[in-house]
């Protein structure tokens, strides 16, 4: 059986990166992987429905972090998608038989080791399969505290779940991983890319403009959609923030940790200072989620209105803009 050092992390994609790279001797923390991959982001897409309600995202699209980190660190990866479960499972068996851990995209809904309350239709979850015990597969799922197992039928369902985005049996594994890398250039490129995505995308749905776009829509939810649907829409914003991956606040805290680590590595105190400011923004996101949750459950003793929630989001947008404008001016 392949020995695989499982470490629990906050987010699946950056956690898989950290765990797989460590297996090959390249030690990179989860926040460093997230930062080099420019994972921090925001988007509100009313035309993309998640379970029938508008979707929000607090991180870059699935797969982007992994591909960016590999490119910037010189890691060569092999990736496959499949037309049939039979071919996908045979390919997986062939690779893990060679002692190679395999990353894969899956649906959370079909992972039986998740508690029932966490199993919903989200098809962009990443995990590592690294061996078998009998018929069952050994799984290093970054958000679990220990190694677990999954039966072949459930793994097929998770790998070939329908809905957006379809995993189509996607699996990936390294062909070559350098033992040592110079992190300076990858850090710089990751920061510059994150600043561009947060500040300069011309469309109103993304970056700090996207947070303001959402704020305006939240304010109009009751009048436009009625109280019941307004609560449903608001509830999905919270769910995307707090339950899928690490959520809005969690990603801000992780990127702040990246800036702290990068500041130490590159001897740049300004990066550490900006990381401290972003941690405070993470607190604002958490405060918003708490207030919005009380509104959804009609438990707001202070009678917080949708207008006040909108104002909280506008304040968050202002603070995030300050952080990323300051970060964009750091000299490397």
What does this structure look like?
- With 332 residues, the protein is an alpha+beta fold.
- The chain has 2 domains: 12-45 and 62-176, Cysteine proteinases (Cathepsin B, Chain A); 184-328, no CATH class.
- Helix content is 52%, strand content 15%.
- It contains 10 helices and 8 strands.
- The protein has helices spanning 12-23, 30-36, 64-73, 85-96, 152-159, 184-199, 207-242, 247-266, 269-296, 306-328, and strands at residues 40-50, 53-59, 76-80, 102-106, 125-133, 136-140, 148-150, 171-176.
- The protein has a 6-stranded antiparallel β-sheet, sandwiched between helices.
- A hairpin with a 2-residue loop joins strand 5 (125-133) and strand 6 (136-140).
- This is DUF4872 domain-containing protein.
- Residues 154-327 form the DUF4872 domain.
- InterPro entries: BtrH_N (IPR026935), DUF4872 (IPR032369).
Report how far apart the termini are: 45 Å
Sequence stretches where pLDDT stays below 50 over 5 or more residues = none
**Tally of individual helices:** 10
CATH topology name of the largest domain: Cathepsin B, Chain A
Biggest sheet architecture:
6 strands, antiparallel
Helix content: 40-55%
Number of domains: 2
Give average pLDDT, whole number: 91
Radius of gyration from CA coordinates: 20 Å
SSE class:
alpha+beta
SSE series? HHEEHEHEEEEHEHHHHH
- What coarse outline follows from CA principal-axis ratios? globular
Lateral arrangement of strands in the main beta sheet: 3-8-4-5-6-7
**Hey, roughly how much beta strand do the residues contain?**
15-25%
